[in-house]
Write a structure and sequence with these properties.
By secondary structure, the chain is mainly alpha-helical. The protein is built from six helices and no strands.
């Protein structure tokens, strides 16, 4: 991906997520009322505020251009839950979820080298445990 496209995707995702995070505390963008019962449960329990803090932190990292892989790793669970919510429970803003997934996926693909160790099978990092079939050893029966 060209550097300008990466920068544009980073800023777009950062601004969208920052706006969504801030909107959890201060209503900037109107939210359809009444809230879906699932969202109402998240608000009543206070859980949504922890999620919004993670969104804001990740957005700030993205907008600063620092620790982009960390910001992306923080956003994946949030965005997947947003997408599943809109797909399964409330399709009113489903296009927003598609846009978020697209931007997040494109940036993750661009930074895939940073995530490669997470997907490797015991090749780097800590050594494989004894008796690991990947090392060609047999596990002892004792």
């Amino acid at each position: 991906m060209p550097p300008r496209a990466v920068g544009a995707a980073r800023v777009a995702l950062g601004l969208i997520v920052l706006l969504g995070g801030i909107n959890g505390f201060v209503r900037i963008v109107p939210v359809p009322e009444p809230l879906h019962p699932f969202v109402q449960l998240l608000v009543d329990s206070g859980y949504i505020y922890a999620v919004k803090v993670v969104e804001i932190a990740a957005a700030v990292l993205l907008l600063q251009g620092r620790r982009r892989p960390l910001a992306l790793a923080l956003l994946w669970p949030v965005v997947v839950n947003i997408a599943l919510f809109h797909l399964l429970l409330d399709p009113r803003a489903g296009i927003n979820a598609v846009v978020l997934l697209g931007l997040l996926g494109a940036l993750t693909w661009h930074d895939r080298h940073a995530f490669a160790p997470l997907l490797a099978e015991g090749r780097s990092g800590s050594p494989a445990p004894k008796g690991d079939p990947a090392r060609g050893e047999r596990a002892s029966l004792a």
